[in-house]
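ligand=nicotinamide-adenine-dinucleotide
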Amino acid sequence: MKIGFIGLGNMGAPMATNLANAGHEVIGFDVAGTTADNVAVASSLEQAVGSAEAIITMLPNGAILRAVAADVIAAAPKGALFADCSTVDVASARAVATDAEAAGLLAVDAPVSGGVGGASGGTLTFMAGGSADAYAKAEPLFEIMGQKSVHCGDSGAGQAAKICNNMILGATMIATCESFALADKLGLSREKMFDVVSTSSGYSWSMNAYCPAPGIGPQSPADNDYQPGFSSDLMLKDLNLSQQAAEDVDAATPMGALALKLYDQFVKDGGTGQDFSAMLPYLGKQGHDG
Ligand code: NAD
């Protein structure tokens, strides 16, 4: 397939490379002039998408997606697939899909989980929203870039799944970290705490697969001085998106709201650029009243 790939950043570049290595003809474009291994570079967005059968975008946020989508829609051939894999607000995803479909494109919003490691290794999970036809055209590409994709529903459903998942992740990571901080002060060893909780009703992905305490459980960013992994800044972005969505549809999300407040403060207090599990040493330095 001829694929135009827009946004060759930390995630987009390895994803584009995996498509090229699987035999697709990939041509990439990024305003910052970044490139990707085995991927041809276009001198303009129009050149990347003008004769593409599929266009994939991997961009920072909804405002940038909306601007890029207007150019993509103007330049792409009718019938082409437009798959946006960025994490953006549900409203932007739906607006872009409506405009793309009106111009005769097949639109799918397909944010990912799995981070930079998953993008390089081709092991991402895709959560997709859009028509059955659009998903059917996109699925073989998701299979190359990832190990699992789920068709979640109509346009916006992929973004909805992503922000709901990450709202759970933010809240459970904080709960896991504050429990370790409490256990420390109660004199309970972290090793024993892990042994109990990871096989008891408090278990979660944050505890079992991504333990925030160094030297405990499987290898995680805590073992690498909290180098991200998944940065606290990206967690803050996703928690902001989930609160924006909750406000838009009048949903009660008190834990999500508190998780947003805590990650916002953590990032302001120096957590920027650290893995989101560095909430553990941050909370460990505080007392009961802050
Ligand atoms: P990034 O900042 O490394 O990459 C984004 C790229 O888009 C940059 O290279 C930038 O130059 C380019 N860009 C910006 N405006 C553009 C334009 N108008 N035209 C063309 N290119 C443009 O970000 P990333 O880490 O690759 O993340 C991309 C998306 O994936 C984000 O929405 C992020 O929330 C999501 N995501 C990231 C991770 C992660 O671990 N990094 C995990 C899951 C989801």
